[in-house]
Design goal:
With about 140 residues, the chain is mainly alpha-helical. It contains eight helices and no strands. The chain has a domain of about 80 residues: Tetratricopeptide repeat domain (Serine Threonine Protein Phosphatase 5, Tetratricopeptide repeat).
Length: about 140
């Protein structure tokens, strides 16, 4: 429907949402294909904030598959766009995701650095839920 009326952003949003459904059902191949399509559309229309969200989602898929290098690449690309758009809340979540990947790949010191950056940002935004999630991850890192 979105394609028929020429609504590229609507189409890309629908593909991003559909990708999440497929990911939730364990269909990673279809999920990644949907995210890739959404990413291409958001890039073509210049929606940097949406592009960052999709990159973060693709990073989650790579993380789920223990493809840590690919996950980090996605998260770093997302983070650059989040800085460009001034989206501090999303950047904090991405910093936490980077910390999680680094923790799981055995780089505890660097993971702690990213967790601290995320924690500081969540605190500056007054986001107690974000703070709690990061503190929980930091605690797991210390255990």
């Amino acid at each position: 429907m979105f394609r028929e009326i020429g609504d590229q952003v609507g189409e890309a949003t629908a593909f991003n949402n559909l990708a999440g459904v497929h990911r939730g059902r364990g269909d990673i191949v279809t999920s990644l294909a949907c995210y890739t399509h959404a990413l291409a559309v958001f890039q073509s229309v210049g929606d940097r904030a949406a592009e960052a969200r999709v990159l973060n989602n693709i990073g989650l898929i790579h993380y789920d598959k223990s493809e840590f290098k690919a996950a980090l690449e996605c998260y770093e690309r997302a983070r650059k766009l989040q800085r460009l758009t001034g989206d501090k809340a999303s950047e904090a979540a991405t910093l936490a995701n980077i910390g999680l990947v680094l923790s799981d790949s055995g780089d505890r010191d660097e993971a702690l650095d990213y967790y601290n950056q995320a924690l500081s940002t969540f605190r500056s935004l007054g986001d107690p839920a974000g703070e709690a999630a990061v503190v929980s991850n930091m605690q797991a890192l210390r255990d």
